[in-house]
Amino acid sequence: MQRDDMKDLLWFVAVARERSFTKAAAELGTSQSTLSHTIKQLEARLGVRLLTRTTRSVAPTEAGERLYQSLVPRFEEIEADLAGLVAFRDKPSGTVRITLSDHALQTTVWPKLEPVLRDYPDLSVELYSDNGMRNIVEERFDAGVRLGESVDKDMIAVRIGPDWRLVAVASPDYFSRRPVPKIPQDLVGHDCIGLRQATFGGLYAWEFEKKGRELRVRVDGQLTFNSTLPMIDAALSGYGIAYVPENLVGHYVAEGRLTLVLDDWSLPFPGYHLYYPSRRQLSPALTVIVDALRHRS
Question: What is the pTM of this model?
Answer without folding.
Answer: 0.64
